């Protein structure tokens, strides 16, 4: 899958990056940005495949006067070294990326002040910019505004693709943050603190912006190899599809309901992400999965929710907590099989929850959901949702899940099943809780709120009895939720 | 890498290249088939550049001081010339000696052909021929661009290994036959110098034979250099000797040293599916190359491939795989000497250069002390003893003297020595000896690198200029869809002298000879730019290169007057 992804890969840069201005008619590319009278010089995209550039040398030094057209810096891309010229007259106020260091395309590398007096202001801006969020992007500079020819390969494309690259990057792997990994840890990796990955695996991970620390390798001695990285990226895309068609998390965006304009009758080639999804979907066929469903009465849970809702507790956090507590008793359901020969008992219970976002889907992860109290968990969830909305989730916040939750209940869906993201052991599809006429053992008929859950699992490691026992435990916890608030 | 540091430290300052690369095999075959015409041509060319001494008889006054006593009333020797070591250097010297009418013997303790034919350039070229094709077949994009459709390419490891082995034995037989048919005596056993003009040889456990010779050439070559702390087991921690047998293709191999040998093997291994980690002691990969060429080569040969690297580190300890544990490599920072990292890989190839093989030569019998194993010689390959005096009738060529550890350099040095002992003074210009690295695409060079040329220019007070051309503008290269490449010329704009030429691109190793011949013959840029190249050929890259050089107007135009016919 890597070929297509490689060619169009764009780094998962923060979408808060303002659109830099590039011009291909005047090579080398210049990238400048207006911010009052202090402009930022961005890392230009010198080729269509360039993702980051290395500063070979600064031709001008801080405080030096620049004229339009002067070469300011030499940048090394994957293809060549190029001089980058200034687009404006002014003073090189501050160098933000030193010689020998690299910066992603579109990242600011220096500040340009219009006059000498503003140099100090520029320096102040640097010191504050680390804490304060950058100001919104003002209108583009007139000189570059008419040029749209670079929008496909220039850094300006980042904004459009970032959601795709973010969701490509997440994966559902176990977290390594707390040291010891599962059973197949590399003997020399010092309990998972050190990544042992093959050269190609590292290259791929860098390309996909994947954090290798979360990965369990299938190579010799637990080494992370290329296919592990590909599988992790695939898992991400698969998780997207497994819950697609809509999604939970009305917290973030209301589904558009097909509101976007579609050119009827046209053949649309897959985007990079769709390609990845397509491959992953096919790949998921190689995992023998099965499903077990269960009907759980939620009256007690609903009552509890009403009681503690005012304290900021969300239903998602409650479900995640209940699932995590059940997983503690059934660790096998929290395991994962990667190579078909061995499996890993994940050391942390990290609940990934599928969330629809603009143009895709992401699975923010509630790490150690079994250990964190429900109030903290709810706050954490809020924070993750905010970050996801701003597309600022860090890789470990979306690719470290060990068990996935997908909830379509808010659409009135009463049952569905999910596709297992490759690299994880199980995913649970949660339907709507609705009043149901129930006959009880004592022969009476009553109305109870019930929801159906349906777990899809990898039968190579998780068997029917495992899931059944897990679901029974989960039902007990939900039907008697006092443990949730402990 | 360890490589550059150690290979530099153990070799003569002039030798930038750990050996292992040459065209020796093919050249010797050509010699065998067309020996007469070829040799005549070579001689006539040489006549132009070396002063020819008057007397051309067989036994001649040697340049050494003590020669007179031997040249007096004929003292009887078993041979005119005895060469210790039947590698490419010894073979080249033997053929030329026979041609000069010398009664010649060659002593070989192992197999004819030496490192180059058996454990170096020849088998590695067989592997590289395979890797080049694999790389091409696997490059779907490249194939599609040519309109070709190829199903998944695969390979049979044993068959690839056999190809390398068969090639080596074929070339070895050719070498042996070429010497036999010319009447060179091949004496089997390890040769030891007993005293002036006296050599003993014999296999272990057999009685020694003693022979006398008017002149003796030491051509014992080199063996892979293994730094301290590295345990070579021949299976998971290997040198080029083992790697060429291609007994395994590991999933992940660390290559210690990113010089010629390491680079060529990275090309082979990655084409066959391995992933490679380079370990380099210097801060930059490929330290022996012109920096600009090295940078470009890294973009093409390293970055897009399944290769990563650690620079500025020594592999201070390498433990072979055993008991289910992987090969463990301890990396130490080259500057701070502090432990930096530990690697666990499936195999490690030690490509840290080569060490001279001069033990047991009996050099103590004639008061010669080796310098880090190398036999000290002057510019005419005459051996220098511990007191700094020349040892009469004793020469040393090839890797054993460390001047330039390349097979074809050894051969050229051997021919130079034979020229001297037959009465013609000859000094080999090492700056005219080309070197090549047979990656895909290839790298080749002759003369000085840009930093070397700059240093020389500063010291001697002249200007240098650089001209460059790209393969992207070459029709033939584009027809092959191989436009990636650069040719670079370093020259003096005041005189037009060619100081160095560096080529990275398709068939660079074959293209370099126009430049090396020009340097050897003293041809200047303003002359060679009028030479005609067939169109469309890759050689036009050099044509364009020479034409783009700017010579100061004051310099006179072509030396040789054009002749109308």
Keywords:
heterodimer; A: about 475 residues; alpha+beta; seven-stranded mixed sheet; 10 helices; 20 strands; disordered N terminus; B: about 575 residues; alpha/beta; five-stranded parallel sheet; 18 helices; 23 strands; globular
Care to describe what's here?
The complex is a heterodimer of chains A (486) and B (565). Chain A is of the alpha+beta class and 486 residues long. Chain A is 27% helix and 21% strand. Chain B is an alpha/beta fold and 565 residues long. In chain B, 34% of the residues lie in helices and 22% in strands. In chain B, strands 1, 2, 3, 4, 5, 6, 17 and 18 form an 8-stranded mixed β-sheet that branches. A 5-stranded parallel β-sheet of chain B has the order 8-15-9-10-11. A 5-stranded antiparallel β-sheet of chain B has the order 19-20-23-22-21, with helices on both faces. The chains are: A alpha+beta (486), B alpha/beta (565). At the A-B interface, helix 4 of A face strand 10 of B.
Percent range for β-strand residues of chain B: 15-25%
Outline the biggest β-sheet of chain B.
8 strands, mixed
Shape category of chain B: globular
Strand-pairing-aware structural class of chain B: alpha/beta
Provide a brief overview of the structure.
The complex is a heterodimer of chains A (486) and B (565). By secondary structure, chain A is of the alpha+beta class.
Furnish the topology, listing elements before pairings:
The complex is a heterodimer of chains A (486) and B (565).
Chain A: H1 2-8, E1 32-35, E2 38-42, E3 52-58, E4 65-66, E5 71-76, E6 81-85, E7 90-95, E8 102-104, E9 108-113, H2 118-129, H3 157-169, H4 199-208, H5 226-242, H6 272-284, E10 289-297, H7 299-308, H8 315-329, E11 335-337, E12 343-345, E13 351-353, E14 355-357, E15 360-362, E16 365-366, H9 374-389, E17 403-407, E18 426-430, E19 434-439, E20 445-458, H10 464-479
Parallel strand pairs in A: 13-17, 17-18
Antiparallel strand pairs in A: 1-2, 2-9, 3-5, 3-8, 4-7, 5-6, 7-9, 10-20, 11-12, 13-16, 14-15, 18-20, 19-20
Helix pairs in contact in A: 4-5, 5-6, 8-9, 8-10
Chain B: H1 2-10, H2 24-33, H3 35-49, H4 67-71, E1 79-84, H5 88-99, E2 104-108, H6 114-119, H7 121-138, H8 140-145, H9 157-182, E3 185-188, E4 190-195, E5 198-202, E6 209-218, E7 222-224, E8 237-239, H10 240-243, E9 252-256, H11 260-271, E10 275-280, H12 291-302, E11 307-311, E12 313-319, E13 327-333, E14 339-345, E15 347-350, E16 354-356, E17 382-384, E18 390-396, H13 407-421, E19 435-437, E20 442-447, H14 450-460, E21 465-470, H15 475-479, E22 486-491, E23 498-505, H16 508-521, H17 525-528, H18 540-548
Parallel strand pairs in B: 1-2, 1-6, 2-3, 6-18, 8-15, 9-10, 9-15, 10-11
Antiparallel strand pairs in B: 4-5, 5-6, 7-16, 12-13, 13-14, 17-18, 19-20, 20-23, 21-22, 22-23
């Amino acid at each position: 899958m890597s070929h297509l992804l490689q060619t169009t890969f764009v780094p998962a840069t923060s979408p808060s990056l303002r659109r830099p201005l590039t011009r291909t008619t005047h090579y080398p590319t210049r990238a400048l940005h207006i911010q009052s009278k202090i402009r930022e010089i961005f890392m230009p995209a010198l080729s269509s495949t360039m993702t980051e550039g290395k500063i070979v040398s600064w031709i001008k030094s801080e405080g030096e006067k620049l004229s339009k057209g002067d070469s300011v810096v030499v940048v090394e891309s994957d293809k060549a070294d190029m001089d980058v010229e200034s687009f404006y007259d002014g003073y090189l106020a501050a160098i933000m990326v030193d010689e020998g260091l690299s910066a992603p395309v579109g990242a600011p590398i220096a500040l340009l002040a219009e006059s000498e007096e503003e140099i100090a202001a520029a320096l102040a801006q640097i010191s504050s910019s680390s804490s304060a969020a950058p100001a919104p992007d003002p209108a583009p500079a007139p000189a570059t505004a008419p040029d749209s020819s670079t929008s496909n390969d220039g850094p300006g494309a980042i904004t459009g693709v970032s959601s795709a690259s973010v969701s490509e990057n997440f994966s559902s792997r176990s977290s390594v943050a707390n040291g010891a990994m599962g059973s197949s840890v590399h003997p020399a990796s010092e309990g998972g603190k050190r990544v042992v990955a093959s050269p190609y695996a590292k290259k791929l991970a860098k390309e996909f912006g994947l954090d290798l620390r979360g990965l369990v390798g299938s190579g010799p001695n637990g080494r992370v190899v290329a296919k592990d990285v590909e599988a992790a990226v695939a898992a991400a895309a698969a998780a997207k599809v497994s819950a697609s068609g809509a999604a939970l998390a009305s917290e973030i965006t209301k589904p558009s309901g097909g509101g976007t304009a579609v050119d009827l009758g046209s053949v649309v080639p897959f985007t990079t992400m769709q390609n990845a999804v397509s491959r992953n979907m096919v790949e998921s066929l190689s995992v023998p999965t099965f499903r077990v469903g269960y009907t759980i009465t939620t009256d007690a849970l609903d009552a509890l929710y009403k009681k503690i809702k005012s304290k900021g507790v969300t239903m998602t956090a409650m479900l995640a907590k209940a699932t995590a507590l059940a997983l503690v008793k059934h660790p096998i359901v929290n395991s994962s099989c990667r190579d078909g020969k061995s499996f890993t008992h994940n050391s942390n219970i990290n609940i990934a929850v599928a969330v629809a976002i603009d143009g895709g889907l992401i699975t923010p992860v509630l790490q150690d959901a079994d250990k964190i109290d429900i109030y903290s968990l709810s706050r954490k969830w809020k924070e993750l949702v905010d970050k996801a909305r701003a597309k600022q989730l860090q890789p470990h916040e979306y690719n470290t899940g060990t068990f996935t939750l997908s909830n379509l209940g808010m659409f009135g869906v009463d049952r569905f099943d999910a596709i297992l993201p490759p690299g994880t052991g199980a995913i649970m599809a949660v339907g709507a809780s609705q009043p149901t006429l129930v006959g009880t053992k004592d022969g009476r008929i009553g109305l109870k709120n019930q929801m159906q859950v349906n777990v899809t699992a990898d039968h190579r490691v998780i068997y029917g009895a495992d899931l059944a026992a897990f679901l029974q435990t989960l039902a007990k916890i939900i039907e008697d939720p006092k443990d949730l608030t402990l | 890498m360890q490589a550059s540091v150690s290979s530099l430290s153990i070799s003569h300052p002039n030798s930038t290249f750990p050996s292992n690369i040459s065209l020796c095999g093919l050249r010797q075959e050509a010699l065998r088939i067309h020996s007469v015409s070829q040799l005549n041509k070579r001689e006539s060319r040489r006549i132009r550049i070396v002063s020819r001494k008057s007397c051309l008889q067989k036994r001649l006054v040697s340049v050494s001081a003590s020669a007179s006593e031997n040249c007096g009333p004929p003292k009887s020797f078993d041979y005119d010339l005895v060469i210790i070591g039947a590698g490419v250097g010894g073979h080249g010297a033997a053929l030329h000696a026979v041609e000069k009418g010398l009664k010649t013997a060659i002593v070989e303790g192992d197999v004819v052909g030496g490192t180059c034919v058996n454990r170096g350039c020849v088998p590695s070229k067989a592997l590289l021929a395979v890797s080049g094709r694999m790389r091409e077949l696997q490059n779907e994009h490249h194939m599609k661009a040519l309109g070709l459709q190829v199903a998944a390419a695969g390979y049979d490891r044993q068959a690839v290994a056999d190809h390398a082995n068969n090639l080596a034995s074929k070339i070895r037989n050719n070498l042996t036959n070429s010497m036999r048919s010319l009447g060179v005596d091949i004496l089997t056993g390890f040769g030891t110098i007993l005293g002036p003009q006296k050599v003993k040889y014999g296999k272990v456990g057999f009685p020694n034979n003693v022979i006398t010779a008017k002149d003796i050439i030491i051509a014992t070559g080199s063996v892979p250099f293994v730094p301290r702390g590295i345990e070579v087991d021949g299976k998971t921690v290997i040198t080029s000797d083992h790697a060429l047998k291609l007994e395994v293709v590991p999933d992940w191999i660390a290559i210690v040293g990113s010089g010629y040998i390491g680079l060529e093997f990275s090309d082979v291994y990655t084409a066959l599916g391995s992933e490679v980690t380079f370990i380099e002691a210097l801060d930059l990969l490929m330290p022996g190359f012109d920096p600009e060429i090295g940078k470009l080569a890294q973009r093409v040969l390293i970055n897009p491939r399944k290769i990563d690297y650690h620079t500025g580190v020594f592999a201070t300890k390498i433990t072979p795989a055993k008991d289910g544990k992987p090969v463990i490599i301890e990396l130490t920072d080259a500057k701070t000497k502090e432990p930096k990292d530990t690697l666990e890989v499936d195999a490690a190839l030690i490509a840290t250069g080569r060490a001279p093989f001069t033990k047991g030569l009996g050099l103590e019998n004639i008061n010669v002390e080796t310098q880090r194993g190398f036999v000290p010689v002057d510019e005419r390959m005459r051996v220098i003893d511990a007191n700094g005096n020349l040892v009469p009738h004793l020469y040393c060529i090839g890797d054993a003297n460390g001047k330039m550890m390349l097979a074809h350099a050894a051969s050229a040095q051997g021919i130079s020595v034979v020229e001297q002992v037959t009465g013609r003074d000859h000094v080999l210009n090492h700056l005219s000896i080309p070197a090549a690295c047979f990656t895909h695409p290839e790298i080749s060079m002759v003369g000085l690198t840009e930093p070397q040329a700059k240093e020389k220019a500063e010291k001697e007070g002249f200007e240098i200029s650089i001209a460059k051309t790209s393969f992207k503008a070459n029709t033939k290269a584009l027809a092959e869809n191989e436009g990636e490449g650069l040719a670079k010329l370093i020259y003096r704009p005041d005189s037009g002298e060619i100081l160095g030429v560096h080529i990275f691109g398709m068939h660079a190793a074959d293209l370099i000879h126009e430049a090396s011949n020009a340097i050897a013959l003293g041809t200047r840029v303003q002359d060679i730019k009028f030479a005609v190249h067939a169109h469309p050929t890759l050689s036009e890259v050099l044509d364009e290169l020479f034409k783009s050089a700017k010579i100061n107007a004051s310099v006179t135009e072509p030396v040789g007057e054009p002749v109308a016919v």
